[in-house]
Amino acid sequence: MNLIEPSQIFLTAPPGLEDVLLDEVVELGFADPVSQPGGVVVSGGWPEVWRANLEVRGATRVLARVGSFMAFHLAQLDKRARQFPWKDLLRPDVPIKIDVTCRKSKIYHDRAAAQRIETALTDTLGVTVSNDADLVLKVRIFDNRVTLSIDTSGAFLHKRGHKVAVNKAPMRETMAALFLRQAGFRGSESVIDPMCGSGTFVIEAAEMALGLKPGRSRQFAFEDLASFDPLQWQEMKGNADSVETLLRFQGSDRDAGAVRMSQNNSERAGVAGVSDFKCHPVSDLEPPDGPPGLVIVNPPYGDRIGNKKLLFGLYGSLGQTLKTRFGGWRVALVTSDHALAKATCLPFRPTDPPVPHGGIKVWLFQTDALKTG
Fold first, then answer.
1. pLDDT in tens, 227-254
2. Residue 104 region, left (φ>0) first, then alpha (ψ -120 to 50), else beta?
3. What are the residues whose beta carbons fall under 8 Å from the beta carbon of 259, sequence distance 6 or more?
4. Angle in degrees, CA 257, 191, 171, rounded to 5
């Protein structure tokens, strides 16, 4: 059987972080990477699709573009959908969801187009179409061209498979990984998060330093495709030995529940041996022994949690602690409010464009190495 190969692989990213994801994809050696609005396109077959899901930390999803044809009316869409070799892509025993959007095309009714695709699938392959299915076929009709893509990830890729507990308004692992990369972290320096919440920054940094693959603990939608080779996949996953590091990754929080949550999450992630979590306020923060590294923090913004007026003192205390005790360290701070960032009195560089996070826009504020004393 000649199974369909992807024509392109699209790794989605939060708007504003596409070039940061591109940097990671280049580092991982994927072919022909190009940044586009909403993500990065690479070339490759199904093994590259699997590897992208397994290894890329910053991608939100991995979409495999598997087909394209022109259609100017619904009858033509129906005919060409029936001619598509679905049996080389999908399994008849695995339900599928159809997601159709139409833009600037003579076929303009999303639901009518979806019905034609659904009927073609059920008539030619016998597959069950369900809105509750984990496997999703994305159909984009733009300028009369029909593009077919499979969401090969299933659940969002920030769901690594080893974190159970999260705090309020958590930072997604994928975004945390991109912010760490944007802040210059490459796994070769210590990282501290003085408001660690559920431990996302600390755990991601520790995993990067240990060389652990982010998708090692979960399942993916591509495992239910006709193209899936379980033996080759197990071989790819099996090459996941961690490297040794003398670095330590530390988190702290004034909330004892958050500290316990972080500790438990780090144990499930397999990084408890290189990470520490302590319960204390930011005013008690002290640098560890060893060379300076990165302080990265996602404090409360006041948009969804608490009263913003009360946060200026918290940001001020954080800034004072870092300025007086963390000479030589770089600081990266995520917040939705420039005034709160300014309240730290830290020497932040000009910011990059904002990034959407949980319905609001946030910026990553960064310093160079802080002056000693």
1. 999 999 999 998 656 788 889 999 999 9
2. left
3. 196, 251, 252, 253, 277, 278, 279
4. 50
